[in-house]
């Protein structure tokens, strides 16, 4: 068994160095971050020196830093990307998250490789292939069920990573080209325009309008908090939080929440261990429902179900707090029992079903005094809190502390005394104190004084779990000497930990060469450069189409393939309602028009449109 599969890893997002450090401090075992370029979130790039600083901080706790280099690359970018990989490796990065197989053709340093979710990892055959060409960790598709994950796990040995919280792409990752077709911004190049969050009108085969101006492709957010144990049983050992564009309070709050959930799970499963060192103390109560979300769903993990969509708004409505029961000249009264605070943010849906917000200046029991009174708000309107001012204030300050447990062993030597510090991972350091043996004037207080001074680790990385004192007599030792001994031991243990840290090794590729599961790749294979083409040819693919971004497609085609089905959402699924055919539907927004085709055998919906978005190209 792969020893990595005994580690349960909480993987948190890092928009930048500050956010990444906060994620580590709030319990992340690893963070993923974008480099200066070539990441799937073009708006979340970071310099190599910043990544180096983040890696130093993470490695203090034996935590890891994964760098997302997961866009597809054109030929002219490969050389620069290769240089960047070497710089990232020298900076201390632990792994690269990769989509473009052209990178594997380059002379890379021995850095571990993770297969991005953009490589569309849904089958045992695909995951096994990725493992055989050198990927140590694979990010599985969000759409998988527990049974499908289990099937992959028993047929492969790579570490399996799965998104457990945050925004959902409605398309299978890597298979969405709407943004490029209709705005010129490629999702596979890190510039998704999020057309899935826009309002559309749905029309059936007979021309009937089933829905008007609703966010028909917009999903709720993933929340697998109740399924962590089931995911572990199925074979997942890396639990990923989405959010490289989210704010700092989101990162702190959600990371802390899943840290608590995983720690509880680990206490029940001794066969697994934490993937990093240190225990967290939180100075707030983690409540993920109070950070940005579009509602919660576990998606398809336990089978297809209603309620995965967020048709009304792509914004954060918040937590329900009650209904308006009275409206005064400058106040609102509500019937809820939620304790509100001055400065809270409140939202509601207006008559046009648009999410609208207001700020509360003052709270007096159930009477709210908004900064501005909304004229359109009527009695009976449901209100939500989308900003908890008290929680935000807590998260603006130091909100967590992470400490590594140590055992201190103070012993007598022929020339004085030794202090040995051993941390929870077995790393140790010993320092000596040359000092004459003089009997103490107050022998009863000697051992208490030694323990008290040696245990003063408050501003350090460490926390004393036990202090052992072994001396032949109650010797006099100045407090200043004990403090110096403690400081030296702390410095040496930190240095020893840094020296002992080992980055994960690059997984070897199989010999003889592994065969790709298919011999044909369409534009959905995202082959955008010659090196990627050579890679697939070497692995048995005989027909390779260019990526959609090469603009070679001319006829209408699937711009998005999704497990989300609008027939199912509107109770028109042929598998559930007798006599209904899976006829195409139409999705419209202004002059943009898409045909929805339904593959009922695979339970998939294809959003078909023109490759040029209906616009002439020069």
Number of helices: 13
Number of domains: 4
Helix/strand/pairing category: alpha/beta
Topology, number of strands = 31
Mean pLDDT: 95
User: How many angstroms does the end-to-end distance come to?
Assistant: 56 Å
Strand content: 25-35%
The Cα radius of gyration reads 28 Å
Q: What would CATH call the homologous superfamily of the largest domain?
A: Aldolase class I
CATH topology of the largest domain: TIM Barrel
- Shape by Cα distribution: globular
Structure in a nutshell:
This protein is an alpha/beta fold and 618 residues long. The chain has 13 helices and 31 strands.
Provide an overview of this structure:
- With 618 residues, this protein is of the alpha/beta class.
- The protein folds into four domains: 3-168 and 220-276 and 284-290, Alpha-Beta Barrel (TIM Barrel); 174-211 and 554-618, no CATH class; 315-396, Thrombin, subunit H, CATH 2.40.10.170; 400-500, no CATH class.
- The chain is 23% helix and 28% strand.
- It is built from 13 helices and 31 strands.
- The strands form five sheets. Strands 1-2-3-4-5-6-7-12 form an eight-stranded parallel barrel, surrounded by five helices. A seven-stranded antiparallel beta sheet has the order 8-28-31-30-29-9-10.
- α1 (17-25) runs parallel beside α2 and α10 (446-454) packs across α11.
- The longest helix is centred in the last third of the chain and has 22 residues, at 479-500.
- The protein is globular.
- The model has no long low-confidence stretch (mean pLDDT 95).
